[in-house]
Amino acid sequence: MPYTVDDYHREYVTENMDRILKYLATDERLKDFVAERLRGLPVEERLKGLPAEAFLKHMPAAEIEAYVKKLRQKKRKAGKRN
Fold this sequence. Notes:
0% strand; mainly alpha; 74% helix; 2 domains; 6 helices; elongated
């Protein structure tokens, strides 16, 4: 298998990681790491510990109302079965 330019870059970065990272601000170093890590987690894990207001404030009111209406309908149907 031939040694490619990508192989060289990977090797260079690996060997010089400490020198390279010290020039980046903390938020720059963590930005891609956090985004990549979050993509690997299920939605339930990402939302764990967040208060409902933290994500509801970014949702349109109509969408929240439609969801609440759907939950109420399910609850009524479940109540009729019992």
